[in-house]
Amino acid sequence: MATDLRQPRPAPVPTQADPGVTAGAPRRRKRSLLSSLEQPLHPWAWVCGLGALGLALTIGAPLLVAVCLMAIFLAAVFYLSPGDATTVLSLAMAALFVIPQSDVFKPLGAAGTPAIMLGVAAFIWWLVSRMNGTSPGAGSYNPVRIGLTILLGGMLVAYVAAFARPLMTIESSNADRTLIIWIGYAGYLVLCADGVPNRARLDVLLRRLTWGGSYLALVALLQFFTKERIDLAVLLKPPGLTFNEPAVEITRASLLRGGFFRVAGTAAHPIEFAVVVAAILPIAIHYAFADTHRGLLARWTPVALMGFAMPLALSRSGFLALFLAGICILPALPATRRLHLAAVGIVVMAGMTAAVPGLLGTIRSFFVEAPSDPSITARTADYQYLNTFFGQRPWTGRGFGTFVPTVYDFLDNQYLLTMIEAGLIGLTCLLLFLISGMVTAQVVRKYSTDPATRSLAQALFAGVVVNAATFATYDALVFPTTGMTLFLIVGAIGALWRLTRSERLELARAR
Fold it and tell me: Which of 67, 190, 330, 456 has its CA 20 to 30 A from that of 466?
């Protein structure tokens, strides 16, 4: 009888130097920046890449040069990073905060900003990963995704209703562009809610969001103190993009208030800048307290930059947003942290008084003289359009994206704009979307036993509250920076809900 001399290979035994490897488990090499650089690209990859770049330079095509450089940059990012949803959303945030939203890919018009195009790509990626079951959130119940579905459903009803009547060409074109922009918004939310693989990567993403807000604040500070002689929003103009003329020209005279120049950073308007910074600031405060493994300077620099730059926008909406953010996060902080935060606020106010004499007095006069301010009376006058347009189509509205400001008027109220364009159905869907984000954040905070998770949930809740309140003071979702920041924050709430699901189930079993 033949004897099988082959013996089974013994399973590897964990050693002292590698305690995390279990018996029989395949070893996975951790890819770091150094190890990635040690692995050279294929020679043909260098030949093709350098050849395409050389050809573009030879024929003098700036757009082709930009495409080649962008392709090389993206390839390097994905080669040296995990290449997951956090990587894609980080690139989108870089495009959102670094590149002004007035710089667009010309054929797409206002929908052709790099941040919007990356948001649309994120939505397509999420859709494909959901269909093939590779998304981390595939098959899971998520309240914010349901809220988004209701919102998009209401807007699609209004979009279809728009074409049920004769439309001007400018109205139909604006409706199509608005739909593309909202798909980009949705891409930020769903990829964050369902694609971020674990809590560590969610923290990485939100820290990068705070640094994006810090860059926005830094650009605003340079604009203010150099009187726009150093404006990174103009100096760092990517090739291949063209300036998109705004619907209304923002003159330098309109940016003067109380003798001070209002700043906007890379945002489209000072109001948008102030609200976005106020929405990100609670998240920055959370990580300033929670990241004790990082240095003091790294933790508090974003808080100081945003806290100092936000008042320079001289926006009542911004101060309202900052007040609401404080109401949301201060009661949830321990007494010692409240004292620390109050000390930081006093230092920032003292520095502001020394650096910009008279600014605090000007800010106080905004609220004292508010009843006679022309901007307040103009906002109240906008309600006349309810009788003109809302009465004609109260349920579905006159059509999603069809209230073109250059044809009709500018509405400094997102709720009013939604009522006119999408009717009562659209307004209800928008409110349900905002409520779903706020309620989900509070449920996560209530059922979590981890102090860091509870603090983060409250900070994200504050970001949604800030946007929901300021919707009544300006047409927020017309501004891409506001829309993408809001949907990313709601997406982070959805990711936190998904990643803490096991903790909630264990708590339910224990009860």
Answer: 190
Highest mean predicted confidence (pLDDT) among 53-62, 283-292, 293-302: 283-292
Residue 240 lies in domain: 83-510
- Say yes or no: 75 and 211 in one domain: no
Whether residue 235 sits in one domain with residue 192: yes
Hey, what amino acid is at 367?
A: F
Exposed/middle/buried for residue 114 (C-beta within 10 Å: 0-12, 13-18, 19+): buried
CA angle 117, 120, 121 (to 5 degrees): 85
Give the DSSP H or E segment for 140: none
Give the model's pLDDT for residue 397: 84
Q: Which two tokens stand for residue 27?
A: 């070893």
3-state helix, strand, coil in the chain (%, to 5): 70, 0, 30
Q: Identify whether residues 50 and 133 lie together within a single domain.
A: no
Of 80, 105, 137, which one is at a domain's C-terminal end?
80
Tell me if 470 is assigned to some domain: yes
Who's near 339: CB < 8 A, 6+ residues apart? none
Task: At 104, give phi and psi (nearest 5°).
Answer: -130, 165
d(CA 68, CA 161): 42
3-state secondary structure 295-352: CHHHHHHHHHHHHHHHHHHCCHHHHHHHHHHHHHHCCCCCHHHHHHHHHHHHHHHHHH
Residues 377 and 292 in one domain: yes
Count how many domains the chain has: 2
**Shared-domain flag, residues 280 and 157:** yes
Please indicate, yes or no, whether residues 55 and 173 belong to a single structural domain of this protein.
no
Q: Which of 204-218, 223-237, 395-409 has the lowest mean pLDDT?
A: 223-237
With bands split at pLDDT 50, 70 and 90, how would you rate the model's confidence at 166? confident
* pLDDT at residue 36, rounded to an integer: 38
Residues 267 and 167 in one domain: yes
Find the helix or strand (DSSP H, E) in which 239 lies. none
